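Morning run. Coffee first, then this:
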Amino acid sequence: MYKVLVSDPISDMGIQMLYDATDVEVVKQPGLSEDELIAIIGDYDALLVRSQTKVTEKIMNAGTKLKVIGRAGVGVDNIDLEAATKRGIIVINAPDGNTIATCELTFAMMMSTARMIPQAYKKTVGGEWDRKFIGVELRNKTLGILGMGRIGSEVAKRAKVFGMEVIGYDPFLTEERAEKIGVKLGTVNEIVAKADFITVHTPLTPETRHLISKPQFDIMKKGMRLINCARGGIIDEMAMVEAIDQGIVAGAAFDVFEVEPPQHDHPFLNNPKIIVTPHLGASTIEAQENVAIDVSEEVLHILRNEPFKNAVNLPPVPANVLNKLQPYFGLGEKIGSILGQIAQGAVYEIVVNYAGDLIDVDTSPLTRYIVKGVFENQLEGINIVNAMHLAKSRDVNIVVQKSNTSNSFTNLVTVTVKTKQEEKTLAGTLLAGYGERIVRIDQYPVDFAAEGNLLLISHNDKPGIIGRVGTLLGTNNVNIATMQVGRKVIGGSAIMVLTIDKSAPAEVLEELTKQAEIVNVRALTV
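And here it is:
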């Protein structure tokens, strides 16, 4: 019998399959302190929590039989993932369970801001009969969706039923998939300029932070409306208040804030054109049951040694495989990360070729690191366990090849990312005494360490370019640590790879792109 401890209030209906399982005993004891949990956890194979229980390293060390920790929800901030990984405990969550709840809240917010329902309600219950609340219809309006993952796609389906035209943005949305769900593809700025309503459904990453800010408000259609039920910080809050004051934004509805809970003097709280709610995206009876059902099913799979998904940490890898592959994990992730930053367009295929020492070992754990690296700047919550699942759900084909030849290297990892616009290739190796090295970018031979702040400059091979780049960076107090130049023929196309001590300001990058013979400048962080 497997023993499962439920230490937070979780719907009995949601965990009914655990109660029904003949090989599982379920014990519910919510409200336990850390010491109380430590005293009993040694008897259990699985622990189910929501957000109240803090699953610390001490608890996991005491859980000598613990195989899995299930979080009935999305966030796992209350679980020490590093400690779980060290002990070989799989941590799973339920990322799909609140999809419909958040989608429907988005529509409730859209309708509310279109018809000013909360504002009208407040006046009516206050004794005023004010019929001057003139709203707008959703029919024949353009909805822009930034982020076409699970929730964004569900919003798009419903918007089409309301008679809306939908434009979507997602770095991994292919034209084929967009056509399937009836969405036109657009850039962020194209959507901002055309949309009557915009809703955001991206993760909060360095790339999406303030995705809509002053430059976007400056080109925005006057009288449009904004909805954010995703993450605080995707929309620049102060810039939006200014846009409302200028009459650019007619109304907004926010379920999330950059800092939660917001301070009492937050400008959203007293603005009559902004509707706010306290992060209610997943707060439905059905969503709470769904996340419990999802996590219960995964727990059963893990306890029974069956295939599972939605793990947020690394499952155990056989020691002999781990010893062989572990030195390559960092290299693989860095190769993927660089490709994910330089490839333009929606990725539809990733081709990984292993050569040399790697051909006789199961490289699937290393492939996960590579795929994670490719997508880590675009997809929230991606990790080395769920990377393959997330790639498959976005119709990204993963091809793994092995070859005996490795071009004079004892080991070589070559990765090609294919999009509708281009193919980009990186090759890397481990060199004794030098560690992780990138040895090829597309057709150009190079040799540099993939770490820190990098500048990748495509240019025509003409005299003086290296000097101009160095002078411009030096003038702007950007120190060059290393420089590599790659070319195939004299006077043809070439690349420069620079390691710099700090990230270059945007205006410096813009100035670099204006230099004669420079084709493209990309700032990378590894």
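Residues 192 and 249 are 11 Å apart (CA to CA). Good start to the day.
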